[in-house]
C-alpha cells in the first residue's frame, strides 16, 4: 500500500532562510513522487516530480527535492525563502500514475 | 490553454438539501478526478473517470454521492442530501492519457459549506 507522511504541519522560516519540508513515503514498488503547492483559495499546482531519471529534481520557483531510496524520503528544499512562498505544500506518491496518495500538507509561513 | 474549470467556486446550503458541482477538464484530458479536501488535509480521491467510464469509485459514498460524465468531457458531482460533515473543498483534476506519470492538473475547487 502507498502512503505519504509529511512531518510538521506548520513550518515557519525567515525571509531569505532555507526552506526544508519533509516527506516520507511508503511504496511496494519504485514510486512516482510529486510536490504540489496550494495558494489560498486555489487549486494545487505542480512544483516538481520524480520520475526515476535523476534523484535530484529541480522544479519551479527555485524549489528542488532529492529522492533518497534508503531513507524513503523526498524532502523539498529552497535555499532562500521568499514571502511569496507562503502556501500549503503537499507531497504525493503514485505507483501507477493513476492513483495519487497525498500527504496531509505542510503550511509554510515566511516571516519578514 | 485554459485550465480546469470548476463552478461554483463557493456554495452554502442547509443540511438535507441537494447540491451539484461542475467541472470542465483541460481539452484532450480524458482522465478526470474528483477529490474531497477537508480543512487541513490533503485531497482524497472520490472517483476517477477514463472518458465516460468510472474506473475507480471505491471511495465514493454511494448512498448520497453520485457523479456523471456522460459525454466523456465535463462532469458533475452531486450530493443528495447534504450533511454537515460534507463541508469541504471539492477539487476536480484532469490528466492526459498519454502521460505515464499521470500528472494531474487541478481546478480551483468548490468550497461547500453545509449549515
Description:
The complex is a heterodimer of chains A (112) and B (115). With 112 residues, chain A is mainly β. Chain A is built from no helices and 12 strands. Chain A has strands spanning 3-5, 10-14, 19-21, 24-26, 32-38, 44-50, 56-58, 64-68, 73-78, 87-94, 100-102, 106-111. In chain A, the strands form 3 sheets. In chain A, strands 2, 5, 6, 10, 11 and 12 form a 6-stranded mixed beta sheet that branches. In chain A, a hairpin with a 5-residue loop joins β10 (87-94) and β11 (100-102). Chain A is globular. The model of chain A has no long low-confidence stretch (mean pLDDT 91). Chain B is mainly β. Chain B has no helices and 11 strands. In chain B, strands 2, 4, 5, 6, 9, 10 and 11 form a 7-stranded mixed beta sheet that branches. Chain B has a 4-stranded antiparallel beta sheet with strand order 1-3-8-7, with no helix packed on it. In chain B, a hairpin with a 2-residue loop joins β5 (44-50) and β6 (53-56). The termini of chain B are far apart.
How are the elements arranged and paired?
The complex is a heterodimer of chains A (112) and B (115).
Chain A: E1 3-5, E2 10-14, E3 19-21, E4 24-26, E5 32-38, E6 44-50, E7 56-58, E8 64-68, E9 73-78, E10 87-94, E11 100-102, E12 106-111
Parallel strand pairs in A: 2-12
Antiparallel strand pairs in A: 1-4, 3-9, 5-6, 5-10, 7-8, 8-9, 10-11, 10-12
Chain B: E1 5-7, E2 10-13, E3 19-24, E4 31-37, E5 44-50, E6 53-56, E7 65-68, E8 75-79, E9 88-95, E10 105-106, E11 110-114
Parallel strand pairs in B: 2-11
Antiparallel strand pairs in B: 1-3, 3-8, 4-5, 4-9, 5-6, 7-8, 9-10, 9-11
State the major sheet of chain B.
7 strands, mixed
Oligomer: heterodimer
Share of helical residues of chain A: under 10%
Low-confidence stretches of chain A: none
Derived structural class of chain B? mainly beta
Rg measurement of chain A, Å: 13 Å
Number of helices of chain A: 0
- Average pLDDT metric of chain B: 92
Give the biggest beta sheet of chain A. 6 strands, mixed
Biggest interchain interface, per-side counts: A-B, 25 and 25 residues
What is the chain-wise order of helices and strands of chain B?
EEEEEEEEEEE
- Please give the number of β-strands of chain A: 12
Structural class designation of chain A: mainly beta
Low-confidence blocks of residues of chain B:
none
> What is the strand content of chain A?
over 45%
Which range best describes the helical content of chain B: under 10%, 10-25%, 25-40%, 40-55%, 55-70% or over 70%?
under 10%
Strand content of chain B: over 45%
Please state the average pLDDT score of chain A.
Answer: 91
